[in-house]
Design brief:
Elements: E1 2-4, E2 12-14, E3 24-25, E4 32-38, E5 41-49, E6 56-61, E7 64-70, E8 74-82, E9 89-96, E10 108-116, E11 119-121, E12 129-134, H1 163-171, E13 174-179, H2 211-215, E14 231-235, H3 238-243, E15 249-250, E16 257-258, H4 270-290, E17 295-300, H5 308-322, E18 327-331, H6 347-362
Helix pairs in contact: 1-6, 4-5
Amino acid sequence: MKRYTLSEIPHLVHGRTNGETEPLTLFWTASGLEVNVRASELWVELHAEWSLYEPWFSFEINGEFFSRRMAAQGTERVCVFRGMNPDAVKNVRIIKDTQAMSADPESVLQICALETDGTFEPVEPRALKLEFIGDSITSGEGDIGAKAEEDWISMFFSAQNNYAVMTGRALNADIRVLSQSGWGIGCSWDNNPHGAIPPVYEEVCGLLNGSKNEALGAHRANDFAAWQPDYVFINLGTNDCGSFSQPMWRDEKNGETFQNRREPDGSFNAADIARLQEKVIAFLKTLRRCNPGAKLVWILGMLGVELAPAIKAAVERYRAETGDTRAEFLALTDDLPNRGCRNHPGVGAHRTAAAELTAYIRAQ
């Protein structure tokens, strides 16, 4: 057995990074490392820390899910496989199963090194690149575990059961996922305006807090030139919709308040919808500036469609105002029979969404 740092072997990195591989920090859902190895045995050296929400990770071998486990505190060696045919090349992916935890500034997962009794082969880059931006749905919350589960813990997040990962697997694409449970376009589910994805999009992982994440480069400007997607799918709006039914948010420190309101008849307040639509248009402009060659597709529907007409109208207005015909809205199926735990889309619902997106891309 020989230990290799990542700079010593051919590999592919999936997900946004800080540009460093010694060690490789896995910030986002479905971020990870891919290698081809001709060996009978492979181990990975991981480093993990957290105070509230432990990271989970999983292994794929030759394109199939193989195992999943919770990371241990500190540095550990974990066996990926052993006793396999030493002459056969295995494609291996080591994937972060859980989202970036904005509520836990101590949460981190890193790949430090690999150990094997064999040799590494080159890994072909993917021709198709897909970026997914979203909330708990795109983080895979509730897509694993029994329907009765209600605990908000990292164990019930799974990248493997995620529609984004499934779509990438079906199309042999390189994917990136940027998502955070509870967050939205203009605010989080509870009307907190600081729980919005667009303001942090241009940083490596701008929603993370604490000095540790800052030192790891989470707040560095993302290098968009290094990785340009062919499609950007924006699955945001579910939490904004929910915020219209929540009380006003108030910051106890400075008195700041925010609320999306409903009228007495239950309809959305027109001024609040107009403000939300402006944020949709502004975010599409940011996405176009950062990803000039990508098709921008706003998707919604896996967990309700009440806000879909307003978002679709905003996308159409963006097209009309900018002349950008490579932006559109796509409705997804709310697969109610396949709900998972925490009343979120389950693995079956993610399969439904992945099939719809795969068909959409193949039809282009």
